[in-house]
Amino acid sequence: MKPEQFKKLIRNYLEGSCTDAQRRQVEAFLREQQNASIVIKQRPFANARIWMRIKKGLPQLKVRSNRVVIASAMVAILILIFMLPHFLIKTNTNQITEKGEKKVFILPDGSEIQLNSASQLSYTKDFKNKRRIQFNGQAFFSIAQDSLKPFTIETGEAQISVLGTSFDVNTYHNERLVVEVTEGSVEVEKGGESIVLEAQDRLVWEQSTWRCERVVNTNENWRQHWLIIKNQKLSSAIKQIEIWYNTRIELGKNLDKDYRVSGKFKKAELKEVLASLSHIYNLNIKLIKPNHYVIEN
Predict the structure, then answer these.
(1) 141-166 pLDDT per residue, tens
(2) For the whole model, what pTM was predicted?
(3) Cα separation values, 105 from 8, 53, 102, 117, 154, Å
(4) Edge-first strand listing for the sheet containing 193-197
(5) pLDDT tens digit sequence for 87-146
(6) What is the residue extent of each domain of the chain?
């Protein structure tokens, strides 16, 4: 029964306007719930807010007997049960960074995560028993070894499995996934295919195809303040710059957004990055208002 139908049935029961069959249905349900133990975990004052919503949804009735008082209290609990899916706090733990922000934290199993800008990671309260996380953005993972409990990262349609290793994952762009291994090995699964990466392997998934490369200089990375754009679509590179500098950049209508660009910048100011792209790729970049740029041919 849907919550609205249930609430209507309860109103009719309290008002005495329900049929005999409906009355028996409610009373049978109340008897089944009399011995139930209900534990609700909420933020402070959350129960009061839920109760106020329930009160607003029920008619104001005069109490005529103990039976009505008891039934009303139980009905409130039952309605609360039906409404819980809308109010319960999620049991996931979330770690989030905004544009231009970076964060380092330790997971319950001892794994260290360095979260890059505009990224999000979440895991359930039973993480120690099942080392599985959901992730989007970019981060460097230093995974604590546990041969009995593999570590799994779910990101979009891809899954990355490890036992104990260090690697970087970049999922900023829906059509592009980059996994770069520093130590150990990882297995990446996507689109019904899988591939195992070893140390200094760099995997790029783009346009439904895999491309595996060797990393020449492992010290050139975002953790060492390097902004690296490597043979990326212009639209992908611009999104990366927006996230890195917490800015807004629009691409002109006539601009080829699939045009490939590259560049490496260490601790560079935004103006320096944009000026370099403008000079190398003959782009016209205009500042139309503070922190808002437009790129045209």
Answers:
(1) 999 999 889 999 999 889 999 978 99
(2) 0.65
(3) 48, 38, 10, 14, 19
(4) 93-96, 120-123, 132-136, 151-155, 158-162, 186-190, 193-197
(5) 444 478 999 999 999 999 999 999 999 999 999 999 998 898 899 999 999 999 999 999
(6) 3-87, 93-214, 225-296
What torsion, rounded to 10 degrees, do the Cα atoms 21, 22, 26, 29 define? 60
Q: Which two tokens stand for residue 84?
A: 């819980």
In this structure, which CATH number among 3.90.1530.10, 3.55.50.30, 1.10.3720.10, 3.30.70.920 belongs to the domain 225-296?
3.55.50.30
Provide the H-helix boundaries in 60-156: 66-87
Radius of gyration of the chain (CA): 28
Alpha-carbon span 197 to 200, nearest angstrom: 8
What CATH architecture is 93-214?
A: Sandwich (2.60)
Would you give the distance in Å from CA 172 to the centre of its chain? 12
Residue with tokens 């009399």: 34
Q: Token digits for 254?
A: 């006539």
